Amino acid sequence: MAQSSASNVTPIHSGGILPAGAMAPNFTLHVTPDQTLTLSDLLGRPVILAFYPADWSPVCGDQMALYNEILPEFRKFGAELLGVSVDGAWCHGAFAETRHLHFPLLADFEPKGAVARQYGAYRAADGFCERALFVVDKKGMIAWSYCSPVAVNPGADGILQALEDLPK
Amino acid sequence: MAALKMPITAEDHIQGLESADVTLVEYGDYQCPHCGHAYPVVHQVQKQFGKRLRFVFRNFPLSEMHPQAEAAAEVAEFAGAQGKFWEMHDKLYENQERLGEALFLDLGERLKLSTTALRQALEQRTFEARVRADFKGGVRSGVNGTPTFFINGHRHDGSFDFEALVSAIHQAMGTAKSA
Question: What is A14-165's CATH superfamily?
Answer without folding.
Answer: Glutaredoxin (3.40.30.10)
